[in-house]
From TrEMBL:
This is CAAX prenyl protease 2/Lysostaphin resistance protein A-like domain-containing protein. It comes from the Bacteria. Residues 123-219 form the CAAX prenyl protease 2/Lysostaphin resistance protein A-like domain. The chain crosses the membrane at residues 21-40, 60-82, 94-113, 119-136, 148-169, 231-249. Pfam families: Rce1-like (PF02517). It comes from Myceligenerans xiligouense. Coiled coil: none annotated. Signal peptide: none annotated. Keywords: Membrane, Transmembrane, Transmembrane helix. GO terms for biological process: CAAX-box protein maturation.
Length: 261
């Protein structure tokens, strides 16, 4: 049975095919991860070696993301959540885009000063395709569609915290895929970077800038053998966390959360 729901925002009413519920967002999120990790397991992933060669990029970067893309296209289309998942009507101040802009600059500088002698033309192709997919997939799965689901029950502080926590936790299985205890540090850093992507989404009113930033960051870090961007990641994460927390708390005091009926 298909239900029709109306999401009320400050720009009008958006008709949805399926009424937003937290559990539906989690189903889409988990389904995406299940397919992604299943392909990793079948292909024998070693996370520390993803960017090593044409073969590793194809099997461990492009292939699982392509599989996950199919899941997202199906689930979000069935839900009818594309418009609210990709657009943000309740924007944060434009100043919130400063941290995402700095992150983009760091990624670009990493590309300018990085070391790419081992990267072949085919590897560049796989890096571009994989980075576009990772930006689109993870932002849609962990922010766009999750925002729609979480806002059916939580205020914006909860939406930011829960969506960002789930985004960071999706990196925890890397413990079993080649990096061991470093996965716990990665989870902490990714919570901060996820907050930066949150700021990119909510300050621009579109999920596309967050997708592009996410893809650019992964493209920069996977392609270069020098860890310039990686060294900056904790500082960017701290800045993203602090700015996001301050802004969402101020927003909660200033205006009520949107409602779904």
């Amino acid at each position: 049975m298909v239900f029709t729901a109306a999401m009320h925002t400050n720009s009008g009413t958006t008709t949805l095919r399926v009424r937003p519920r937290v559990w539906l967002g989690l189903v889409a999120f988990v389904a995406y991860l299940a397919v992604f990790y299943a392909i990793w397991i079948v292909n024998g992933i070693d996370y520390a070696r993803v960017g090593e060669s044409e073969d590793t990029l194809l099997r461990w970067y492009v292939a699982p993301l392509a599989g996950g893309l199919v899941v997202l296209l199906i689930t979000i289309s069935l839900f009818g959540w594309w418009r609210p998942a990709l657009r943000e009507t309740r924007r944060l101040p434009k100043s919130a885009a400063v941290v995402p802009a700095i992150m983009a600059a760091v990624a670009i500088l990493n590309l300018v000063f990085g070391e790419f002698s081992r990267v072949t033309m085919t590897m560049w192709l796989f890096l571009v395709v994989g980075s576009v997919l990772v930006g689109f997939n993870e932002e849609l799965a962990a922010r766009g569609q999750l925002f729609v689901a979480l806002r059916s029950r939580f205020g914006e502080v909860g939406v930011w915290f829960l969506s960002t926590a789930l985004f960071s936790l999706l990196h925890l299985p890397n413990f079993f895929f080649g990096i061991g205890a470093l996965a716990f540090l990665q989870v902490v850093i990714q919570f901060g970077l996820g907050s930066v992507y949150y700021l990119a989404f909510r300050s621009t009113g579109s999920l596309v800038p967050a997708m592009l930033l996410h893809g650019l960051w992964d493209f920069s870090t996977f392609s270069s053998s020098l860890p310039y961007a990686g060294l900056a990641a904790p500082f960017l994460g701290i800045a993203g966390f602090v700015v996001a927390l301050v802004l969402v708390v101020k927003e909660r005091r200033r205006s009520p959360a949107p409602r779904v009926s």
